[in-house]
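Hi F.,

I've been meaning to write this up properly since the lab meeting, where we talked about keeping a consistent format for the predictions we share between groups. The idea is simple: the sequence comes first, exactly as it goes in, then the structure tokens exactly as they come out, then a line or two of notes. No screenshots and no reformatting. I'm using this chain as the first example so we have something concrete to point to.
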Amino acid sequence: MEDDADIYDGIRAQFPLTFGKQQKSQTPLEAIHNATRRSTTGSNNNKKKKTSDDLLSLSSSSKAWLDSLRNSKPPNPNDSVIGPPRPAPVPGEDDDAMVGPPRPPPASGGSGGGDDDDDDDDDVMVGPPRPPPASGDDDDEDVMIGPPKPPVEPSSDSDADTEEENRYRIPMSNEIILKGHTKIVSALAIDQSGSRVLSGSYDYSVRMFDFQGMNARLQSFRQLEPFEGHQVRNLSWSPTSDKFLCVTGSAQAKIYDRDGLTLGEFVKGDMYIRDLKNTKGHISGLTCGEWHPKTKETILTSSEDGSLRIWDVNDFKSQKQVIKPKLARPGRIPVTTCAWDREGKCIAGGIGDGSVQIWNLKPGWGSRPDIYIEKSHSDDITGLKFSSDGKILLSRSFDGSLKVWDLRQIKAPLKVFDDLPNHYAQTNIAFSPDEQLFLTGTSVEKESTTGGLLCFYDCSKLELVQRVGISPTCSVVQCAWHPRLNQIFATAGDRSQGGTHVLYDPTLSERGALVCVARAPRKKSIDDFEAPPVIHNPHALPLFRDQPSRKRQREKILKDPVKSHKPELPITGPGHGGRLGTTKGSLLTQYLLKQGGMIKETWMEEDPREAILKYADVAAKDPKFIAPAYAATQPEPVFAKSDSDDEEK
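Output, unedited:
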């Protein structure tokens, strides 16, 4: 065997190192996740006081992993000594940590050996030394004489913090960003399996991401522009995840299949019909839309025309139901947002007058709301969310507040969370999978230094749990916590950029971001080289080139009075330069005749009828203007004679 190995090495040495199949070096997963790990400096405003060693914005599993690395170092024996310094070691004894005065010598050989064994097994003892036992049977280690052992404060605090973190288990130790938009991302949708993510933006486009097909470059596999010149305001997957709804600023919502192909577009209503119930569709821009959570054929949309409509996916020509909200006075007030409950038996709408109205889907139901919360917010409502049991409703508004409502008692909210700036009409609220927490995003203000935050609240205690910094300059609009992936999605951006931030924990999350981050992009080979094609434009040749525009040259010629042969315009006002003005007549002869009295303006004093008839005899005797051939055939004019004395005078 050794000879064969030597022969192989000798032959292999004759070939270059790149010859043959080379084994690719695999990057360990730990190094990959370290590259996406969030920084330890974050904004964390927990109500509970944290120690200086606590890492902000880290989950319990990540903190435990870091603590294990810290504790893996060899302990320093000098750190565990309390009290006077340790005396010189006695040969034959163990090097355990000793606190207090030195150990007394053993009373006897037999019993002393047993005591040494007991002392070696005991923990560090604080206080005076243990007296020798009266008999050999008194070996109970629980009996301690002296003051009790003081608690170790750092370990107790860390244990309490770990218990608090483990209670919520927020996966946010690592982060990736799905980029591609040039403006803020205003819409987000993740399918039921968590494999595909949709993001819509104010740049009028929708990007589709596939976790199973993406690599570490995190590029979208398809880009759509649903309606040219209209912002994308909401996206929603069907319950079977085979279609998705796209709501833009136009009056028509669109349905796409899973691969991004257009399946249909809902009809637009007649804007000249005043009664909205008689129109076949919305007549103004849409504000929100959501697919039915259970039925794959039903869709709910809201619009600026002041109505909510329920559609059937199989019929794009007309809606199934029109809902007109209750208003204090007749008019059209926009419906800013809408939402289904978990079972699809209830509809909630946020009205532009600040009210929240809820309708129960039951036989014979109409536009009259079953629950009417008047003036729930002082500004437009941007997001509504039902709890799974349908008893709790969360509302988010432009007024910078988040309110928790108990639908059994709607006179006043259970809790109001203020100081949550909101500048975007698509800012929403989301629940955690177990509904222990709910979260929302904040917008960036001009003079603020906190940036865009993701705020987590406890559902039972109704208090702030944690604030996670997403971006120092970008506002957070949409957020979602996927139950299967156990990953948190948050869309952010500003006027020049936008992206979807995905927070995950390698020990708590599944699939999703973990799959694409671990997949390295394929390296380019020499076989992938493609020469850029040379495109010859025929209009670039002089033969096919268009003549240059002579517009400026023509304008210049028109301004030149000599080249344009333009006659001189009569001057206005007094004359100058040898020319007479228009004050005394434009011509010299007119001026002279007027001054000499030869031209008299008598037309204002004469009767036009008499001025014409005085030429009647001349025209009859000498028909100058009529040919002689028609003189005999022309009828004689007969003028009516006046019977009135007044007219004769």
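Notes:
The longest helix spans residues 153-168.
The chain has twelve helices and 28 strands.

If this format works for you, I'll send the rest the same way.

G.
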